[in-house]
């Protein structure tokens, strides 16, 4: 089975699907499935735009609304996770996953599904330690804090995923697992993104929660995005017991969706030839959701997941074969996910713009049906009840707004030493949206394909790469600066890289005037990293 994997989509669905169509037309390669690793931007209307945590100048409608309205339909089954540039109000309607448009499926805060026998999991959002142990308490209309915390990973999602015992074929996260860069060509990565050096050398770049999941799940493939650079790694896992067979994970981070960027990857994945073409629930995952339902929290109080430390009567929520069998019997052994997409908001109409449209908290019928079927808590319904009782968000919002007023900044604090969990990391909320002064893409030295000069597919077609049968390079080989493919692309760009680095050596830290005495690095989207919001 051919699987296409994309990095940050940023709402450019037409671009993605046109690229897949071009792939089929020119090279007779038709993917059976498309995966997107976050920043999908399922924006339906102007209200959704207001729920994206970016300055106003970056809020563009893009093309998702055409698929939401039914004007267009995704030509291939598309599965995606959330990132940090999302219409959070829309995705929040589907905490357990669901259809955001016909043939486009969101995995939820965390989720596992099956397609043609291939087990696909993922976790949405990015890691921030100060929100990690909170519940999912946010709901629209968001304030300057909750518009960001809404997409921050929570410990309950990681805990659920860690209850899985059966093998995972593919896993997606938006931010990279922390430490994964030590298993790939780190030298080339730092040549391309020199401002990562401090965090790489201190081992604080990326998500410690994702790293924890990588070591526990040990999937065959792990795909990420977020940092807008292509990077491959190979991680050999240690066996937990003498009986366990050695496992390895092929990691790939994808670039963002832009013309002439290597943002799509095609891989061949072994599948069950007897399986149908429908997207299916994963029975073990459903059983885990049922087992952990009592742990659902919709408050912003911090709390730890149950662990074997003498404080909890139960800490193991993994499920038995009997529990999985019960799920199968509940579904009459029909795991097909119903195609029950429903419009829950007005769709953008270019001829009738509604710039003052306000977001509202919506209970999605898909979630209602899913929770009723499996006896789960509807998180949004619980939040709504808390609001109506006056015991939840209303009071908290006032406190948060007061805090924002006192700091005068909507920028989130540094992840260093923010709590006692030991899970600190460098993981900026906004990554390089602005293409001014963009680095040249070092992953390919291609020219535009044309009828007169047909490209050699694997090296010249800049938007797509066919992954070889194996990404199995050892960590020593991957670290080698003579890695053929990366050197081929990077060698000719040294002059550009040098000038680009000299042009951008400023880092945001300390006070707004930069008086910390620490060398600063200016990222491409300086406006987003700055404390002042463009809305002001």
TrEMBL record:
Name of one Pfam family that matches = Metallophos
Where in this protein does the record put region Disordered? 386-536
Query: Is Transmembrane helix given among the entry's keywords?
Result: no
Q: Which GO terms describe its biological process?
A: mRNA splicing, via spliceosome
Output the InterPro entries linked to this UniProt entry.
Calcineurin-like_PHP, DBR1_C, Dbr1_N, Metallo-depent_PP-like
GO CC annotations, alphabetized: nucleus
Point to the regions of Polar residues compositional bias: 415-427
Enumerate the subcellular locations listed in this protein's record, separating them with semicolons.
Answer: Nucleus
Return the Basic and acidic residues bias intervals. Answer: 386-395, 485-510
Q: Which domain of life is it from?
A: Eukaryota
Which residue numbers delimit the Lariat debranching enzyme C-terminal domain?
235-380
Which keywords accompany this UniProt record? Hydrolase, Iron, Manganese, Metal-binding, mRNA processing, Nucleus, Zinc
Cofactor(s) named in the record? Mn(2+); Fe(2+); Zn(2+)
Q: Give the family per the record.
A: Belongs to the lariat debranching enzyme family.
Q: What is this protein called?
A: DBR1 enzyme
Look up and give the organism this protein is from: Sinosuthora webbiana
Q: Which gene encodes it?
A: Dbr1
């Amino acid at each position: 089975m051919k699987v296409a994997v994309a990095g940050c989509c940023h709402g450019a669905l037409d671009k993605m699907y046109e690229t897949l169509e071009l792939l089929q037309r020119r090279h007779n390669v038709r993917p059976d499935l498309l995966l997107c690793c976050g920043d999908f931007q399922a924006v339906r209307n102007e209200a959704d735009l207001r729920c994206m945590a970016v300055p106003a100048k970056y809020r563009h409608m893009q093309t998702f609304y055409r698929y939401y309205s039914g004007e267009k339909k995704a030509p291939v089954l598309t599965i995606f996770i959330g990132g940090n540039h999302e219409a959070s109000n829309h995705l929040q309607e589907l905490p357990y996953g669901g259809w955001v448009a016909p043939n486009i499926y969101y995995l939820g805060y965390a989720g596992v599904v099956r397609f043609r026998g291939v087990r696909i999991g993922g976790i949405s959002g990015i890691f921030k330690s100060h929100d990690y142990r909170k519940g999912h308490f946010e709901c629209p209309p968001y304030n300057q804090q909750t518009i960001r915390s809404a997409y921050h990973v929570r410990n309950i999602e990681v805990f659920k995923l860690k209850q899985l015992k059966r093998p995972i074929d593919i896993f997606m996260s938006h931010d990279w697992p922390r430490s994964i860069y030590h298993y790939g060509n780190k030298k080339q990565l730092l040549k391309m993104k020199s401002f990562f050096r401090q965090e790489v050398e201190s081992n604080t770049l990326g998500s410690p929660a994702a790293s924890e999941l990588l070591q526990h799940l040990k999937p065959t493939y792990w795909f990420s995005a977020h940092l807008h650079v292509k990077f491959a790694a190979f991680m050999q896992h240690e066996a937990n017991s003498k009986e366990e067979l050695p496992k390895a994970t092929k990691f790939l981070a994808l670039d963002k969706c832009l013309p002439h960027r290597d943002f799509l990857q095609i891989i061949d994945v072994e599948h069950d030839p007897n399986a149908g073409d429908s997207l299916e629930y994963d029975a073990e995952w459903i059983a885990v959701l049922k087992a952990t339902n009592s742990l659902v929290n919709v408050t912003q109080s911090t709390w730890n997941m149950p662990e074997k430390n003498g404080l909890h009567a139960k800490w193991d929520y993994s499920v038995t074969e009997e529990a999985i069998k019960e799920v199968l019997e509940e579904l009459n052994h029909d795991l097909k996910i119903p195609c029950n997409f429903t419009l829950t908001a007005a769709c953008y109409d270019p001829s009738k713009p509604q710039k003052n449209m306000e977001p509202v908290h919506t209970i999605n019928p898909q979630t209602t049906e899913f929770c009723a079927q499996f006896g789960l808590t509807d998180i949004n319904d619980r939040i709504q009840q808390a609001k109506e009782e006056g015991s939840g968000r209303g009071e908290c919002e006032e406190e948060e707004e007061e805090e924002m007023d006192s700091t005068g900044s909507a920028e989130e604090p540094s992840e260093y030493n923010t709590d006692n969990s030991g899970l600190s990391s460098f993981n900026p909320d906004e990554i390089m949206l602005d293409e001014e002064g963009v680095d040249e893409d070092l992953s390919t030295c291609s020219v535009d394909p044309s009828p007169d000069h047909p490209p050699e597919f694997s090296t010249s077609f800049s938007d797509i790469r066919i992954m070889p049968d194996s990404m199995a390079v050892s960590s020593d080989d991957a670290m080698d600066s003579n890695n053929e493919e990366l050197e081929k692309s990077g060698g000719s760009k040294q002059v550009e890289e040098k000038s680009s680095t000299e042009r951008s050596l400023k880092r945001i830290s300390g006070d707004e005037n930069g008086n910390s005495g620490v060398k600063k690095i200016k990222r491409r989207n300086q406006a987003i990293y700055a404390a002042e919001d463009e809305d002001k």
